[in-house]
Write a structure and sequence with these properties.
Length: 385
């Protein structure tokens, strides 16, 4: 069954053309020299991205892949201004990033509910001949056409907003921990790659406080070369201010597994290594105190370490205290301010984009007419002028 979690879509967007200006000379009884009275054309509609907290995936855009704004209407006689084209708003979940599908260039980022970002601007309306009147040119017989539309193929990519991101190999206990700390109920089973899509959970803390935790599919060594599933979903922890690395306590070499995970993140986005990190040794209910003390001697010394067991409920309170302390540390807040409160988005690799959307086809009729570029003159007015 196809999942309803869609975090990656390609759409075609087109703004509206500007309406042409009117070339008209005023005609009235007893006014042989009425002069120009052609109005301006209306502007074409813009295309906007708008953050909407009621959406959590891009599923609705899978079935609405073409977004066309309205064209501006031509101006009329008696200084009548043409109607502006209808604007189009594309509602997206908070955390959506837009890229140019033709070049892979980063375009914009929508992170807040109600935030509006201009994706494409509509063409300006042409000026009517009334705008060109002067003392030396009292009856201008020309007007401007409207500006043309803009069109663009856009890739929208959702990057979930969370405070803590879980990083680990398959079967490291990430989903079990999320279900133990929050009300989220991700799928849990005793085989690799049980998690096929990201999950979010709100972790309650003392004094009615809370933080958001994100679980992604497990990553494996060589994920940067396309192995496994996790690399595709690493975008969902790019925004997290804290990364929680999870390594099972029964692993042969805990330090080695941690370094492999760290290396895969480096290959995906080197900027992720600047985030604060915490290491959790899971399934510690299988370890006695003597073994825990022995393992601690070989663990990385540059980050906090916590031994936990989500099944037995061991160390979970200490883990939440540690996560809350790291999230609110002065160095973490300072890093957020220095980075402008956001991540640095890299342009997308065109080879990857072409592979991801190799089956995407243009399936609409281009009904944009060009007759707005032709100015229609009132020949009778010109003859009488």
């Amino acid at each position: 069954m196809e999942s309803n979690f869609v975090d990656y879509v390609k759409i075609y967007c087109r703004s509206g053309k500007g309406g042409r200006g009117s070339m008209h000379l005023h005609r009235a009884k007893y006014m042989p020299n009425g002069g120009p009275d052609g109005g301006d054309g209306g502007r074409g509609g813009n295309v906007y991205l708008r953050g909407n907290h009621n959406y959590w995936t891009l599923l609705h855009l899978r079935y609405e892949r073409h977004v066309f704004a309205g064209n501006g209407q031509p101006g009329g006689k008696a200084l009548r201004h043409g109607a502006d084209g209808e604007d189009r708003y594309i509602d997206v979940p908070c955390g959506t990033v837009a890229y140019d599908a033709e070049t892979g260039k980063y375009l914009c980022d929508v992170t807040e509910d109600g935030q509006i970002v201009t994706l494409l601007k509509g063409g300006r309306g042409g000026k009517g001949n009334w705008q060109f009147r002067s003392a030396t040119n009292q009856t201008p017989r020309y007007a401007q056409p409207g500006e043309p539309m803009q069109e663009q193929m856009v890739v929208l990519e959702l990057k979930l907003l969370a405070d803590v991101g879980l990083v680990g190999f398959p079967n490291a206990g990430k989903s079990t921990l999320l279900s133990a700390l929050s009300s989220a109920r991700p799928k849990i089973a005793n085989y690799p790659f049980t998690t096929l899509e990201p999950s979010l959970g709100i972790v309650p803390y003392r004094d009615a406080r809370s933080f958001v935790m994100a679980d992604i599919p497990g990553i494996i060594e060589g994920a940067a070369e396309g192995r496994g599933l996790g690399l595709r979903f690493l975008r969902h922890i790019e925004r997290n201010s804290l990364l929680l690395f999870m390594v099972p306590g029964d692993t042969d070499n805990i330090r080695r597994e941690y370094e492999i995970l760290l290396d895969e993140l480096r290959k995906f986005n080197p900027g992720m290594l600047d985030k604060h990190r915490v290491l959790a040794i899971t399934k510690s209910d299988l370890l006695d105190d003597e073994l825990i003390e022995m393992l601690s001697e070989d663990l990385p010394s540059d980050l906090p370490v916590c031994f936990i067991s989500a099944v037995a409920g061991k160390g979970l309170t200490e883990l939440k205290d540690l996560l809350w302390s790291e999230l609110n540390s002065e160095s973490n807040k300072l890093a957020g301010i220095t980075e402008g409160g956001s991540i640095v988005h890299r342009d997308r690799d065109m080879d990857v984009l072409q592979h991801d959307f190799s089956d995407w086809e243009q399936d609409w009729d281009d009904d944009a007419d060009d007759d707005d570029e032709i100015l229609e003159y009132d020949l009778e007015d010109l003859e009488e002028a």
